[in-house]
Amino acid sequence: MAHHGFAVAFCLNHHQGGATRLSQTGTTVQIEQLLPPALRGELLLTTAMTEPAGGSDVSALTTTATPVDGGWTLSGTKAWMTNGLLVGGLIVLARVGDAAGAENIASFYVPFGASESVKRTEVLVPGGRSFRLAEVAFDKHFVPDWCLIAPPGAALKASMTAVNGARVHVAAMSVATLYAALCEAVDYCENRKAFGKPLTGHQGLRWELAEVSVRLEAANALVFRAAEQIQIGENPVGLAAQAKKFAVDTAIWGIDQCVRIVGATGASAAHRLNMHLAEVRMAAYADGTNEMLLDRVGRGLSSAYPKSIS
Ligand SMILES: Cc1cc2nc3c(=O)[nH]c(=O)nc-3n(C[C@H](O)[C@H](O)[C@H](O)COP(=O)(O)OP(=O)(O)OC[C@H]3O[C@@H](n4cnc5c(N)ncnc54)[C@H](O)[C@@H]3O)c2cc1C
What we know:
alpha+beta; Butyryl-CoA Dehydrogenase, subunit A, domain 2; Butyryl-CoA Dehydrogenase, subunit A, domain 3; 2 domains; four-stranded antiparallel sheet; 8 helices; about 20% strand; globular; binds flavin-adenine dinucleotide
């Protein structure tokens, strides 16, 4: 899907992540109520961690869930919700009680219904409107008991494990979008002539395209290594972070090269190149910024690269 458009693949992947998690850890009621419409595409799922005051430090979130008869009331604001303009509810991480840290963070499926206690506002992102991003504010919004997904203390760990998988998915999508951009650039350069020969007949330009292909294949190989670990049931925190950082950086750099290499037409709507670049740019924030990813890699250095190799 990301060959055609990074944003649409990213939005569907968010939905997939929510549905997979519900199918693995949801209660019978949640599975019966939510999975069939989610599989039919009638119900879109998005996980809501980020708040306007910050996204990297999830354990500092301030949205609260207060127990009431038959459920909870939710208050607080979630920012940068993928599919936020389309969803009829969110999987929300919220704090139960006053204690700081991760111990009292729980997660809920929060249906919006027709309630006035939910307000959503579009987040305007030039070049990124396909993500349908929204900020969603809850004001004492009622959530029924059956919607509790992970109890206080368990939610953050479960969400971070899911984010780890999502990092590899985003890395794979970035590689796929770069592949599409490179194919488009190569095709154009084979057919456009300058100084009496195709653009690819000029060694300088041909080498620039070749350099993009080298880094693309390196990123792809790293993504495969991380994906294989996930496939066999491991939780490769460092490898997933390495894959996401390298693939996203490589895609942003590589697509930018393609936009430039083909000449002015690369910036125009005659090509998909500028759209690919604007959409892949968004991958640098979602599911962990570069600094957060390097932090993950850095913490695991001594076990991933031990003094003596046995
Ligand atoms: C297209 C898109 C879709 C998204 N979809 C969702 C979604 O569906 N659900 C959701 O919950 N969120 C979503 N997000 C939000 C995303 O997860 C956050 O943007 C991300 O976690 C970073 O948070 P922030 O933007 O608030 O930056 P901040 O946390 O405010 O950080 C700002 C800068 O400071 C750096 N920084 C922070 N802490 C440190 C540190 N300790 N050391 C060094 N540098 C640091 C960061 O790397 C960053 O460069 C989405 C974002 C985008 C762009």
